[in-house]
């Protein structure tokens, strides 16, 4: 690290869990973020601020006025712009040292698998069960850690798949089949800070896995209820009948 980097990340380097070695690991990491909406925006901004060296942003949607209530990387001036381009501008203004690769088209399974294979970690910030299942399947196949978040109405949840953790359950261990409408903000609504809370937790889980400290949420489901301000950490076991991770 040069002097500018040492100063930029000094408060983080002071942590005994991170120090110079952990910061170097972050700087040398490549992370794939799928979805630059309410979850992906705080994820991308915090990982950029923390010094993750290479962020790959994947989203084929454009910024809509209704997004601005919660998707904090986008601005009114960016309405109509591709979300990945809008997010890249915000990230570059926040930390110009971060390399940003934008993927503004829908990835087929082969292309998505390639990106997951290239990544040190994947963050699922989507709101569509079919793509969630596909991301999960390909992370398991490529032995790539996955941090998955979801938020709707006044509730949210985070789970982690870590191939380094023995018997780590995957996303399909939690949901075998599901209806997309349960995760659709346009149909159900969502409070703006809820996606910020969940996205921020996804970011810290990613930093822990990349820098190699602490205990991740692998093997657990963290559930947040903003209405009652209640947190629940539920034990999640691998499903022996899971068609994705149990052979």
- Determine the CATH topology: Rossmann fold
* Whole-angstrom Rg: 17 Å
CATH architecture: 3-Layer(aba) Sandwich
Let me know the CATH homologous superfamily. Answer: NAD(P)-binding Rossmann-like Domain
| Mean pLDDT metric | 95
Largest sheet: 8 strands, mixed
Shape: globular
The total count of strands amounts to 8
Q: What is the domain tally?
A: 1
Straight-line distance between termini:
43 Å
Low-confidence stretches: none
**Relative strand content:** 15-25%
* Structure annotation, total helices: 10
Strand order in space, largest sheet: 3-2-1-4-5-6-7-8
The SS-based structural class is alpha/beta
What level of helicity do the residues show?
25-40%
The CATH C-level name is Alpha Beta
What order do the helices and strands follow? HHHEHEHEHEHEEHHHEE
Q: What layout of secondary structure does this protein have?
A:
Elements: H1 3-8, H2 10-13, H3 19-27, E1 30-34, H4 40-50, E2 54-58, H5 83-94, E3 99-103, H6 109-118, E4 121-124, H7 129-142, E5 146-152, E6 155-161, H8 171-174, H9 185-188, H10 192-211, E7 220-225, E8 230-235
Parallel strand pairs: 1-2, 1-4, 2-3, 4-5
Antiparallel strand pairs: 5-6, 6-7, 7-8
Helix pairs in contact: 4-5, 4-10, 6-7
Structure characterization notes:
With about 250 residues, the chain is an alpha/beta fold. The protein has one domain: Rossmann fold. The protein has 10 helices and 8 strands. The chain has an 8-stranded mixed β-sheet, sandwiched between helices. The longest helix has 20 residues, at about 190-210. The mean pLDDT is about 95.
């Amino acid at each position: 690290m040069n002097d500018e980097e040492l100063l930029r990340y000094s408060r983080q380097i002071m942590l005994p869990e991170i120090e110079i070695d952990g910061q170097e690991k972050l700087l040398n990491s490549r992370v794939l973020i799928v979805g630059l909406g309410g979850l992906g925006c705080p994820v991308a901004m915090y990982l950029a601020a923390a010094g993750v060296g290479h962020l790959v942003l994947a989203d084929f949607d454009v910024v809509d006025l209704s997004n601005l209530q919660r998707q904090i990387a986008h601005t009114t001036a960016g309405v109509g712009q591709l979300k990945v381009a809008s997010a890249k501008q915000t990230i570059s203004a926040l930390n110009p040292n971060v390399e940003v690769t934008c993927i503004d088209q829908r990835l087929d399974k082969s292309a998505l698998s390639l990106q997951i294979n290239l990544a040190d970690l994947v963050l699922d910030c989507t709101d569509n069960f079919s793509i969630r299942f596909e991301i999960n399947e390909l992370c398991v196949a490529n032995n790539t850690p996955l941090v998955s978040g979801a938020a709707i109405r006044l509730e949210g949840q985070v789970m982690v798949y870590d191939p380094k953790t023995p018997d780590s359950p995957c996303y399909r261990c939690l949901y075998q089949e599901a209806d997309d409408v349960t995760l659709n903000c346009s149909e159900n609504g969502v409070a703006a800070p809820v996606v910020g809370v969940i996205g921020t937790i996804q970011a810290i889980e990613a930093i822990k896995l990349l820098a190699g400290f602490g205990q991740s949420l692998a093997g657990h489901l963290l559930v947040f209820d903003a209405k009652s301000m209640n947190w629940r950490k539920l034990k999640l076991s691998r499903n022996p009948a899971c068609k994705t991770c149990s052979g």
